[in-house]
Amino acid sequence: MDVLISILSTIAVSIVTALFAVYLAMRRFRADKWWERKHQSYTRLLQVIHRLVRYAETHLDDLLGEREMTQEDRRQLEEEWKILHREYCEARDLADFDLSTEALKSLEDYEAAKKAARNDEDIDEWIKGDLKASKQCLIDIKKAARRDLRVG
Description:
The chain is mainly α. It has one domain (35-149). The chain is 89% helix and 0% strand. The radius of gyration is 25 Å and the shape is rod-shaped.
């Protein structure tokens, strides 16, 4: 009888231990997958904002005469902006689900700064304001990502 109780208690402890190990493994798996999803969202958003910075720099260089652009170059630049705008809107919509409140606040500030710059009647100032807003957003989102993802 003592042998049977010993065997049953060993089996019970083994089952509880195995279930707890599975629970911890699944918890870790979900946490890792969530981290990967957040990382992907931050990366995508940072890539789009980086390209928006390059767009604004190119546009400003053209306006200030620091870069000679043909009509075809300008047309391609505007086409690129349309693509970037769509990509930003898509990344922004998905960000509501994946990113930290700090990152979302940075995006709100960015959009407000871009809107304020767009209201400027001088195209040079508009683009300068857009560039400044984009660069600041890039800095802020990087900071938020590092905190949220607990890296760097």
